[in-house]
Amino acid sequence: MIVGISGASGAALGVRVVELLAATGQCELHLVVTPAGERTLAHEVGDSALPRIAALAARHHASADIGASIASGSYRTAGMIVAPCSIRTLSAIAASATDNLLVRAVDVQLKERRRLVLMVRESPLHLGHLRAMAAVTEFGAIVAPPVPAFYARPATLAEAIDHIARRAIGLLDIDLGISMREWQG
To answer: pLDDT band for position 178 (50/70/90)?
Structure first.
């Protein structure tokens, strides 16, 4: 499983996705963080966030390492989540502009028809954003903006982040033994 973290606000979502996937012990976790993602992680979560989640991953790849294993379709993965996904990263994906490892790894997921979840984090949206989301959806990605489930009545921001992260992991259609509060009607 690959987790990408780009520079959009909401870096805690990527941290929680890594924590949840690592806790299952059922997947080899690869992590790639863009330079803007590193900066946002430090600002929003703290300087220790990146070293902490990098330690949970089997492999932490440098964003500039376009020759990494996850840049090749012959390296089999179960899927990828980009949490959060910046508009810059979304736009690069929509244009197939694979100038860094995160976007290259996404491109590989798409060309190999593997599960890909993009937690696009931006508001409000203009037509260019919407067209980029439509394009990546047509390519096979799942666009899943990090919207809180108010029916779960989260008491804290951490509870809302946890639910959003669990929902994104669930979109990979892989049973990782992660339960979340589901709507019961």
So the answer is: low
pLDDT at residue 25, rounded to an integer = 86
Binding residues for dimethylallyl phosphate: 151, 167
Residues 78 and 112 sit within 8 Å (Cβ to Cβ) = no
pLDDT(185) > 60: yes
Residue stretches of the annotated binding site: 7-9, 34, 86-89, 121, 151, 167
Distances (CA, A) of 152 to 17, 119, 143, 170: 19, 19, 21, 16
β-pair partners for 118 = 82, 143
DSSP assignment string, 69-113: GGGSTTS--S-EEEEEE-HHHHHHHHTT---SHHHHHHHHHHHTT
Backbone angles phi, psi at 30, to 5 degrees: -115, 135
Domain boundaries, the chain: 2-170
For the segment 126-169, what is each residue's pLDDT rounded down to a tens digit?
A: 999 999 999 999 999 999 999 999 998 999 999 999 999 999 99
CATH superfamily of 2-170: Flavin prenyltransferase-like (3.40.50.1950)
